[in-house]
Amino acid sequence: MEIDRLDGRTPNQLRPLACTRNVLNRAHGSASWSQGDTKVLAAVYGPKAGTKKNENPEKACIEVIWKPKTGQSGKAEREYEMILKRTLQSICILTLNPNTTTSVIIQVVNDDGALLPCAINAACAALVDAGIPLKHLSVAICCCLAGSGYVILDPSKLEEQKMKAFVYLVFPNSVLSNLPEGQLKVQGEPMEHGIITSVTQGAMPVEDYLHCLERGRAATAKMSAFLRKSLQPKLPID
């Protein structure tokens, strides 16, 4: 069964991607990331000396602050902050700058679906722009499950609201990694076969989750190539 998408995309087709680095003058690193009409700004400040309470002073601390487009932060924003913090901690090399705090500020410009993956992609680009040492890059995507069991990728806001369940997936991009070759495998599997973050909302059978995992991993190959191209330093024009 095929699902007709309002914007005419195929089920596996992503919305147009856009990424710009160094968009904020006072931040140590910054980036904007857009997927269709969803747009997020990420700013990085630090590392600054000292860690937050209850953090390990022998490692660097990552602080995430989520700012919605309008109004005050609520329960959803707190949850986004927690997921984003854990994701960024997984890709940062926390032992190089112990007893420091790096703050990542997320500003939602517009939410038209797949907001959290868009924010994760923006944060990763901003960390690179700030020169924060990373184990590897990461790419995030949203996969939605319709009531009929059909899967679509990178949904709009309206599509999200009509779906039975959806999952946010973050995959490592081991093509560019600062880890020794021996650490690029987990239990004998290449790192790109692994997953950094997985967050589901709604009831989803295991078979459908594995289908989303397969489809999401395949789609992020294109996103990985786009991210690497966006992060390449611009050469001066003679």
In short:
The protein is of the alpha+beta class and 238 residues long.
Helix/strand order, N-terminal first: EEEEHEHEEHEEEEH
Output the structural class: alpha+beta
- Overall outline: globular
Mean pLDDT metric:
87
Q: Main β-sheet, in a few words?
A: 5 strands, mixed
Number of E strands: 11
How would you describe the overall organization of this protein?
This protein is α+β, with helices and mostly antiparallel strands and 238 residues long. Helix content is 27%, strand content 32%. The protein has helices spanning 75-91, 115-130, 157-162, 206-231; strands spanning 17-21, 29-35, 38-49, 61-67, 100-110, 136-145, 151-153, 165-177, 185-186, 189-190, 197-201. Strands 1-2-3-5-4 form a 5-stranded mixed sheet. Strands 7-6-8-11 form a 4-stranded antiparallel sheet, with helices on both faces. A two-stranded antiparallel ribbon has the order 9-10. The longest helix has 26 residues, at 206-231. 36% of the residues are buried. Residues 186-191 have low confidence and may be disordered.
Q: Which key phrases capture this entry?
A:
238 residues, 5-stranded mixed β-sheet, alpha+beta, 4-stranded antiparallel β-sheet
Helices and strands in order:
Layout (H helix, E strand, L loop, with lengths): L16 E5 L7 E7 L2 E12 L11 E7 L7 H17 L8 E11 L4 H16 L5 E10 L5 E3 L3 H6 L2 E13 L7 E2 L2 E2 L6 E5 L4 H26 L7
Parallel strand pairs: 4-5
Antiparallel strand pairs: 1-2, 2-3, 3-5, 6-7, 6-8, 8-11, 9-10
